[in-house]
């Protein structure tokens, strides 16, 4: 009698687990990341930006220090002769200066955007 009860309990447990596995096959995991809702429009000069809401063309998201809970704002990319930096933290937020509008930022002290043809 004890073995019959144990076998019945085991069958019930296995059937429950199997039903749970079968019912979850069409589900997708919910992973942390981008909040749900409409995609925000790219920000203009001086507007807050982050990993989820970027900046308009010709601007970069530059860390600005914490002012009114704003950590980064959209700023113009470097033009020829302006200071520049390629250094960024996660999510495309730059730390000291924006990269150059055209071409790479030279890797040397006092990095400045180069004068390139057609600038």
UniProtKB/TrEMBL annotation:
Name the InterPro entries for this protein: Colipase
Q: Which organism is it from?
A: Ixodes ricinus (Common tick)
Q: Which GO terms describe its biological process?
A: digestion; lipid catabolic process
List the keywords (alphabetical).
Answer: Signal
UniProt signal peptide: 1-19
UniProt GO MF annotations: enzyme activator activity
> Would the keyword Signal be found if you checked this record's keyword annotation?
yes
| One cellular component (GO) term of this entry | extracellular region
Protein name per its UniProtKB record = Putative secreted protein
Q: From what superkingdom does this record's organism come? A: Eukaryota
